[in-house]
Amino acid sequence: MDINAGSLTDGVELAELARIDVAAGGKSRGEMTGISQVSIWRNWFLDGAQTLSDLKATFNFEQQDLHGAALKVKQEAVPSLPEDLGAFVSDLGHESTGSLPAVNLILPTSLCSSEVARAAATRLAQQEANEEVRFVALPHTEGCGGAGGAQCETIFQRVMLGHLLHPQVRQGFLLEHGCEKTHNDWFAARLAAREVPRERFGWASVQMDGGVEAVYARISEFFKEPPSPSLLPASALSMAVIAAATPRAEALLLSELIRFVVLRGGTVLLPSTSPLLSSDAFLAATLFEELPGKLLSPTLAYAQLPSSPGLHVMEVPSTASSVEIVAGLAPAVHCFVTWLDDCGLQPAHPFVPTVHVTEEDGSHATEADVGVDLVDTKRALATILITLREALRGAKTKAGVTGAVDFS
């Protein structure tokens, strides 16, 4: 560190202790190691004159799991597609599908260990250069002195453990700083509550294990050991659909995509803020029982895993950013389908594949992974599903190639 406050107890004068050259252009210890971070805290504003009691009445304020059944979709036939695409949706372990892209995840338990985790993942990626398994860290701004009540810890737990236990994570390593509220033992206790053994993961502490370089060595040593072989359980495709704007033609195409996946036994998640839920055309084409969007209740809390397949709506605060929406959906899905609007390429998830789709002659067609003809629904659906299948086999997406990924 630049200033070791403990030296004051050894008699070093503060004036001498704080005499460093950073203001004169010298590099700090963080700059020397390539570690820096910026935290921007924002208020969660309330529309109108809402009070806390109003909020509790209209929102799942305590963040308890919701137990809503999946929404019933229309059973009418969808366009006939090649059987291998149907098999891909019904069973990701099907021989024509292959395995999910694997990642080695370094999960920081708080803001204070986030940059160390990121730097470790970058270093390992440069050293290993393994195309089959990527090293990923998820830097974030939570955990250090986090406050806000039990509901905040509930959200944090669902998001972080949901990523740690994601089917695409081959090996996971938890890294604490050492003095945070959500330290390693906090995570171990919550894993134990889910009957997940602590020994399944690697653990390190920046403070207790001797600093940054010692932690790097500990992480590197852990990932040298191959994981115990495990088979991917039979699982149908689970995907999230994100659309910032949905004219009628786009809404109807996404409706057909969602129904195809659900009718094949898959799962589709929509955020509660999705414009699709305000589209009369989408609701009429998708739901078995036509309801106004305002009457649809979320079936899942934020970052909650569905207990049954089908079409689900995940509760999302109206003020959540696009990155926060993705972070809440990711634990429950294998991939994202994001419809590009006038804003262009949206930040994707760091390891859950995101396929960006738009109209083939749209203004942002060059940024998309898939350009579709909205008139030829059958061809459009096949193209989207083929691209999803390739992404889940490890093919690079536009967001992955450009580094347009984020986590919050």
Any descriptors?
single chain; 408 residues; alpha/beta; 6-stranded parallel β-sheet; Ribose 5-phosphate Isomerase B, Chain: A; 13 helices; Rossmann fold; 4-stranded parallel β-sheet; 2 domains
User: How far is the first residue's CA from the last residue's CA?
Assistant: 27 Å
* Main CATH class of the largest domain: Alpha Beta
Q: From the helix content, strand content and strand pairing, which structural class follows?
A: alpha/beta
Poorly predicted ranges: none
List how many beta strands DSSP finds.
10
CATH topology of the largest domain: Rossmann fold
Describe it.
With 408 residues, this protein is α/β, with parallel strands linked by helices. It folds into two domains: 173 residues, Rossmann fold (3-Layer(aba) Sandwich); 123 residues, Ribose 5-phosphate Isomerase B, Chain: A (3-Layer(aba) Sandwich), CATH 3.40.1400. The protein contains 13 helices and ten strands. Strands 7-6-5-8-9-10 form a six-stranded parallel β-sheet, with helices on both faces. The protein has a four-stranded parallel β-sheet with strand order 2-1-3-4, with helices on both faces. Helix 9 runs parallel beside helix 10. The longest helix is centred in the middle third of the chain and has 16 residues. It is globular and about 80 Å long. It starts with 13 loop residues before the first helix and ends in a 6-residue tail after the last helix.
